[in-house]
Amino acid sequence: MEKFVETQASSVDLAVEKALVELNTTKDKVEIEVLQKGGLFQKATVRVTLKDNLADRLGEFLNGTLERMGLVSRAEIKEENGTIYATISGDDSGVAIGYRGEALDAFQYLAATFLNEQKGDFKKVVIDCENYREKRKETLTALALRLAEKAVRLRRKIALEPMNPFERRIIHSALADSELATTESEGEEPARYIVIIPKGVELKDNRPIKNNERDDHAGRKGGRNDRRHGGHGDRRDNRRDDRRVRNPRERREVNEEEIEDGTVYSGYFTDDDFVKPAKQSGPPKFKSFGGKKKF
Q: Whole-model pTM?
């Protein structure tokens, strides 16, 4: 709804000045219509109407949304060079940001949709909270540089997790002039992602690996049970083998007399196998074993 006032004064300029005071605005933000110029016996009459301000309307929309969500936060709006900047602050800033900025991206989507439905020139909108966008930019820039080195070292393409357009632009920009790697976007929204491609090396495999995935050909060597690559292997097996080598027991064939005697049954045995167990003499000591208890 348009907001305007009609004022009268002895001159047009005075009438306009009076209207600006009532509207609490400046001359560049209003449209002025002279209804009557005034003269010797009549006053000048003007109608001063606030111009349609998308930034102000966006501020009302965002603050209304925050209030309906029950968040103790407010959005401050400013417009520079055709872009509307909305900064959210307050006790619930963390909720407004969300996990990895997902809530903030949702606010940005809502704001862009709201502006597209309004009349007037197209306006770009950027929503931030607690300087999250700048911090995220620094994190992604460092990630891009680190993964470019990793791609060259492994001689593999590296696929990042899906990102929104804002974050993908950061990765592209970070490696735009890189001598190590270049970038490409693949997939469809909302799962569109970036692939980092190393420069100046022969790829081991044309298929990309994930950011947190280890190259199959560059696996860890010398592990606990990886004896092929110098690992420990099973130390217990090694120790048993060593004992057999250090203390071999002499083996000999059992004769028929020993078999008939009942000392052994058959086969090959060592001298230790011929030690007969000592026979117990006398009854057991306790009744529970069938004997009398001795005192």
A: 0.57
